[in-house]
TrEMBL record:
It comes from Flavobacterium hibernum. InterPro entries: DUF2157. This is DUF2157 domain-containing protein. Residues 12-158 form the DUF2157 domain. The chain crosses the membrane at residues 43-61, 67-88, 108-126, 132-153, 158-175, 190-208, 220-239, 245-261, 270-288, 300-320. It comes from the Bacteria. Pfam families: DUF2157. Keywords: Membrane, Transmembrane, Transmembrane helix.
Length: 332
């Protein structure tokens, strides 16, 4: 790695992008072999929040008859209050641009407070049913709290919780495992429509946020959720023939792929670009199979079998070429 770094620095010097003095300073600094533990420490902080909140859940489950419901809810409320107290005390207030806490621990306190709020409201509804049979409210309220915390404290982790809660409110499970194994998602056509509408709303929100310059660094998160939700909903309807309208979802997937192709270049987001290609490729192959269902392949069956290896090898080569081209374009 040091060899490549030195070569890159020398290339900058040769192109006169840095001075000789700057080159010497960079070389001396690298010779000190100093490295940052920032990422590792943040990972352990994130892991500690997950373990703490998971431990709270296990504690409630194992001692629910011993501790008592009121005591558990009281302890949760006190912990949530303490977390929010320190967060509000040390925050810089709401700002439309990106803002960070002076101490990274406070960011994870916001995350812990949001997760515990979801646990508190969920447990309260499960045990005492303050919202009656309106279970959607038990999902909507922590979702709104999470959106508030995400925007007020500028926390991306909490934003993902908020979007997940919003998806759950409209009846979706947005974890990859649930999307791939949820039979209701594939058998219920109205749920597919809800998924596509939610994805479109997330896209529209990013467009509006960009116009008013409201937390534009959140756009990538919104667009990532929108890409997955719209693409998977469209592909599921390509597989399942609902009254012969699968062709409409083919056009939806094509339009979605084109839009995210443009957005991935605008944001220079390779994650959006890669997933866009994967979903478009899957959708294109399903579309071909649906077309071939209406064609007599008896005469060209052997030709198709022979050409399949070349097709898949060509697809892999094209995928690699597209990624390389994208990296060159965003680096230019």
């Amino acid at each position: 790695m040091n060899k490549f770094d030195n070569q890159a620095t020398e290339a900058l010097l040769e192109r006169k992008l840095i001075t000789e003095n700057q080159y010497q300073e960079i070389t001396v600094y690298r010779s000190l072999n100093i490295f940052s533990l920032n990422a590792e420490l943040k990972f352990f902080l994130y892991l500690s929040v997950l373990l703490f909140t998971s431990g709270i859940g296990v504690l409630i489950y194992n001692n629910i008859d011993t501790i008592g419901h009121i005591a558990i809810l009281s302890i949760l409320l006190i912990v949530i209050g303490v977390c929010f107290y320190f967060c509000f005390k040390n925050s810089k207030g709401f700002q439309k641009s990106e803002v960070k806490f002076e101490h990274p621990v406070l960011e994870y306190l916001v995350l812990a407070a949001s997760i515990l709020t979801c646990i508190f409201i969920g447990y309260l509804q499960f045990q005492y049913k303050p919202f009656g049979t309106h279970y959607g409210l038990a999902t909507l309220i922590p979702t709104l709290v999470s959106f508030f915390c995400a925007y007020y404290f500028d926390n991306k982790s909490v934003l993902t919780i908020a979007i997940t809660g919003l998806a759950a409110y409209v009846g979706l499970s947005v974890t990859p495992q649930d999307l791939l194994n949820n039979n209701n998602f594939y058998s219920d056509q109205s749920l597919s429509y809800s998924a596509i509408m939610l994805g479109v709303l997330l896209v529209l929100w990013t467009i509006y946020s960009s116009r008013i310059q409201l937390k534009t660094h959140f756009n990538l998160i919104f667009l990532t959720f929108a890409l997955h939700i719209i693409s998977i909903a469209s592909i599921s309807n390509l597989i399942n023939d609902y009254y012969g309208i699968w062709l409409i979802f083919a056009f939806i997937l094509a339009g979605s792929s084109y839009y995210f192709y443009k957005v991935s270049h605008d944001l220079k987001a390779i994650s959006l670009y890669v997933f866009m290609i994967v979903y478009a490729y899957i959708g294109f192959n399903i579309f071909l199979f649906r077309v071939f269902e209406h064609i007599d392949l008896a005469d060209i069956w052997m030709l198709l079998v022979i050409s399949l290896p070349a097709y898949f090898i060509g697809s892999i080569i094209l995928f690699i070429k597209l990624i390389k081209t994208f990296n060159k374009q965003i680096a230019a």
